[in-house]
Design goal:
single chain, 123 residues, mainly beta, seven-stranded mixed β-sheet, four-stranded antiparallel β-sheet, 0% helix
Length: 123
């Protein structure tokens, strides 16, 4: 069983920055493909960014050039640096892990999920 704990959400003004972190339990973090999803009220959960166990990256078009996903296998942690935040980035952000697979854009591709952290961007 893998446990994921997200930190770093909060309230920020448009144009500001936040960094989310997700700490994972387990001894095989390096083989997890990780991702950040978000879900706004009344909307489906959507992929924001993903990083595979081999370092491959994936971003939603809406965040390209503004958000950066990274991982530190020594710390069992994945990060999401969010810059130039917009009100439409407001959502609950979830960390997800695919143990041994390559991840992908759909929530069903991930086995483990964090509890979520709220990000609110004011205009």
């Amino acid at each position: 069983q893998v446990q994921l704990v997200e930190l770093g959400g909060g309230l920020v003004q448009a144009g500001g920055s936040l960094r989310l972190s997700c700490a994972a339990s387990g001894r095989t973090f390096s083989r997890y493909s990780m991702a950040w999803f978000r879900q706004a009220p009344g909307k489906e959960r959507e992929l924001v960014a993903g990083i595979s166990w081999s370092g491959g990256l994936r971003y939603a078009d809406s965040v390209k050039g503004r958000f950066t996903i990274s991982r530190d296998n020594a710390k069992n942690t994945v990060y999401l640096q969010m810059n130039s935040l917009k009100p439409e980035d407001t959502a609950v952000y979830y960390c997800a892990a695919d143990d041994g697979g390559t991840g992908g854009p759909a929530p069903r591709m991930y086995t483990y999920w964090g509890q979520g952290t709220q990000v609110t961007v004011s205009s």
